[in-house]
Amino acid sequence: MIRTVADLLAQIVDDSLPLLAASDVTHAPTIGDMYEGLSAEILRKAIPGRIDLRVVTGFAVDGLGNRSGQLDCMVVRGQGVQIPFTDSYEWNIKDVIAVVEVKKTLRKSEMSDALEQLQSVRVLEHNLEDDPDIGSTDVGSALKTFAQITGRVAPVDNLGSLSVGDSSILQTLLQEQTAVIRIVIGLHGYATEEAFRDGLVNLLEENLGTRAYSPAELPQLIISGKYSLAKMNGRPYVGRLADGPSVPGLIPGEWWPFYCSSPVNPLIVLLEVLWYRIDELYDITDLWGEDLDLELFHPLLLGQGTSAGWHAYFVGGSEAQLSSAPPMNSWQPEFISAEEFVVVQRICQEGSYNLENPEMHAWLQGRGVSPAEVRGNLLRTKLIAAEGDFLRVVATDLGMAILPSGEYIIGENNTGRFLRWIELYAAARKGERGSEVSEGWD
């Protein structure tokens, strides 16, 4: 479904942009209004019709007398206050789901303006950090993402024991779980993915020491023409800790690729980000339909938290390197060994499991399998995480199956994706067997 809707939105954009370009209007504010109107129309069509959400323009307010700058588009729920004799509204930040800044053409200067405008929304959110409603939010989603990123279960009862790096990641994820989705849309923009990436990097370098561009402060999504930059905050995309540069005082294998680029249709990424939040708020899992496609991203910004703040590293990449891999891949479950499958079963049965259990340890060794290798392979799936010496499932709905081929699979099934894959696998296998029978009868 998500690709079908994205294709529909892309057709609207393709049909509308030539009309805007052919307009003889030269009044800059009116031109801006036209592009903002197109973006608002895209957002309206992106929102499921059965959900009571609106797309408005105006200001976000915090109820304490503070307001944001004027925002091009806001996706909102509840009730706002219309500003007299205008089409603009004031909307409480607690009822704002997403804000969008629209640019006809997104270059470095326009990107800088958009980031500064969206920062006014972050200021309002900071004003409400002690709000009791926010403090009572279920943080399970952030904890799950933390485990997927780090491979470690956060010690909920003793968060003070976290390393500085892990604490920085968790604090960012907790903010992201309740933060307004901030999006920049440039309907025209950079000619290549490499140029887009360089544009953001140059902007960040120019503002070192003057602006705060930590993982939590950057927008969740920036679109420039046919490319996008997205945050790997688990909503829905996840960036697992990876190797990075050797920096004194930092750990090479503990870099979080928190900002990545992609050449995939940006409207797919927009829908993924927006629908993830809508699903969280309204529990509409059928939004995803039958899609089994997986967007691929190229790491751009790696981050590691320190006592002095975030340390960032920029990942380079030529256009040839960036375009060498396909932008989409077919999702499939994790294929694991029989021994690993048995371990996952034991984890599910007991809630958590220590591979150093004498019985299990002896069984694995008797089969010529290293417990450390089993542990490492399961952690790489992002479905299992470590809690000290124990392993625990962090998938929301873990699916497990043994295929007719004798292969063992596990996967996340919170949107039904695991079961859909099995259905397609079974249909394809039946088709192959039917073909073999037909050939035999010939």
Structure description:
With 442 residues, this protein is of the alpha+beta class. The protein has two domains: 2-330, no CATH class; 334-441. The protein is built from 13 helices and 19 strands. It has helices spanning 2-22, 28-46, 108-127, 132-135, 140-150, 164-178, 193-206, 266-282, 319-322, 338-350, 358-366, 371-380, 417-441, and strands at 54-61, 71-76, 81-82, 88-92, 96-105, 181-188, 221-224, 227-231, 256-262, 293-295, 298-306, 309-314, 328-330, 334-336, 353-354, 384-387, 390-393, 398-402, 408-412. The strands form four sheets. Strands 3-4-1-2-5-6-7-8-9-11-12 form an eleven-stranded mixed beta sheet, sandwiched between helices. Strands 14-19-18 form a three-stranded antiparallel beta sheet. It has a three-stranded antiparallel beta sheet with strand order 15-17-16. Strand 16 (384-387) and strand 17 form a beta hairpin. Helix 1 (2-22) packs across helix 8 (266-282). The longest helix is centred in the last third of the chain and has 25 residues, at 417-441. It is globular. Residues 435-442 have low confidence and may be disordered.
Strand order in the largest sheet: 3-4-1-2-5-6-7-8-9-11-12
Structure classification: alpha+beta
Main beta-sheet annotation: 11 strands, mixed
Shape category: globular
Number of domains: 2
The helix fraction, in percent, is 40-55%
Domain DUF6602: 22-123
Protein name: DUF6602 domain-containing protein
Quick gist of this model?
The protein contains 13 helices and 19 strands. The protein is α+β, with helices and mostly antiparallel strands and 442 residues long. Helix 1 packs antiparallel against helix 2 and helix 5 (140-150) crosses helix 6 (164-178).
